[in-house]
Amino acid sequence: MSKIPKAALSLKQFMLRQEVLKLYRTIFRTISQVPDAATRQELREWARHDFRQNKHQTDELMIKMLMHNATRSLKELQTSLELSGTPSAPNTTERSR
């Protein structure tokens, strides 16, 4: 009998989960740079809703697609902040590994 709980993640799943969490943190760090409080709150609610809506997703391809879409939205937000003259959080999504 194995001592590993049935709910244990495989290494691949664990690594993918870490990437998702890193993206989530980066999104919230970038949102914190938005100067308007109402917009900042709306963006937080949008991000939380999207991540909660997909938190039970298990298909690796679907998770990667969702991450790609979230990364694209993050880059658009960072670009908007840069164009408005607001310094955005460092872009940690493209850090070399």
Largest sheet features: none
Rg is: 16 Å
Shape type? elongated
Strand fraction band? under 5%
Number of helices: 3
Please provide the ordered H/E string of secondary-structure elements.
HHH
What distance lies between the first and last C-alpha atoms, to the nearest angstrom?
Answer: 37 Å
- The SS-based structural class is mainly alpha
Low-confidence stretches: 92-97
Averaged pLDDT: 87
Query: Into which percent range does the helicity of residues fall?
Result: 55-70%
* Strand tally: 0
Task: Report what the structure shows.
With 97 residues, the protein is mainly α. It has three helices and no strands. It has helices spanning 11-31, 37-53, 60-83. Helix 1 packs antiparallel against helix 2. The longest helix is centred in the last third of the chain and has 24 residues, at 60-83. The protein is elongated. The termini are far apart.
